[in-house]
Amino acid sequence: MAVTGILEPAIAAPVYLCDIYATYLEKGARSSIATTLYTEHMDDIHFERHFRTPYSEGYYIMQGNNLQSNNRLGTVDIHFTTTAVHGTLILERELEEADLTKLIEQIDEDLVLSADMPRDDFLVSVYVGKDVGFYSDEYFAEENNESLDFDDEDDPSI
User: From which domain of life does this come (predicted)?
Assistant: First the structure.
């Protein structure tokens, strides 16, 4: 049985689920190809919703079953269109290809299929990176206020 599609390492390259797997999903069955890619140490993955809109959702991907070992593995943003579902998966560490495939399958089963939105394909872009910060309007407002306060002290006309 031939598998079509691309399964690339997690280096900013799209990962496409194979056509066979997508066909099995449409029929409500499990692909034996996909189930053979399971590994034991990825079983403690769960998702925490970060945001939700009518056509998009964002989740933190957490690994671990208790508070001491509950670490963020990455984030996934899912965008539903009329024909396909697009995912952006950002991992905070590299995974073996088998673990990456299992994670994508778990995202598909737990998040995409549970949304009950029709789709022809699930397209996932995978990146490996690190969290360098969180910025918001409040952050920039504080930065601007601090900058204005500093400028007032240096202005001799005040």
Answer: Bacteria
- Which residue's structure tokens are 């409500």? 28
Tell me which H or E stretch contains 59: strand 56-63
Instruction: State the total domains in the chain.
Output: 1
User: Does residue 48 lie within any of the structural domains?
Assistant: yes
**What sign results for the dihedral spanned by CA atoms 113, 117, 118, 119?**
negative
- 4 occurs within a structural domain: no
Per the CB < 8 A criterion, the answer to whether 87 and 78 are in contact is yes
Q: Which amino acid is at 77?
A: D
Q: What is the pLDDT of residues 33-64, one digit of tens each?
A: 333 333 345 678 999 999 999 999 999 999 98
For residue 133, how many other CB atoms are within 10 A of its CB?
5
Q: Tens digits of per-residue pLDDT, 139-153?
A: 888 888 877 665 555
For Cα atoms 119, 17, 52, give the angle at the middle one, nearest 5 degrees.
50
